[in-house]
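[Meeting: bench + compute handoff]

Bench side (C.D.) handed over the final construct sequence. Compute side (W.E.) agreed to return the predicted structure before the next meeting so the bench team could plan truncations. Sequence as handed over:
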Amino acid sequence: MDRKRTRLDKIRIDKTIGMNIRGEREARKITREELAEIIDLTTSHLGLIERGERGATPVTLEKLVRVFGITLDSLFAEPNKTISAREKRERLKDTYRKKVSTLISHLTESELELLSHTIKGVIKTRPAGSTANSNDINKILTEIK
């Protein structure tokens, strides 16, 4: 009886983790292919994990929490079906920040300077009353220099 219960618990946990991984990925508008490449898995293996058909290794879980910027325990939590629009926007912003940061790390000094000037030009031409936060962009530009 204990073995059967343990097996059922593992299946439930794998499904919960899988649903949470898929939810985090979709909230950030990352394709399964993109995430699989980032965490060094095949797309089909990631699909098995997301469907709860295979458990994620501790190494894979560590990579996922780093990519998503979440805590490990949040992957074990019962999935929250209702996520606020604000939280979705924040998660999406975090994803784009990480993607941009990765891209920037591959640029040369002259490319960084060009990018800096381009971003400053975008900020200057932004319509009045825009909700974009130029302070965040200016902080990034300062760090680039």
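W.E. noted at the follow-up: Residues 2-27 form the longest helix (26 residues). C.D. will use this when planning the next construct.
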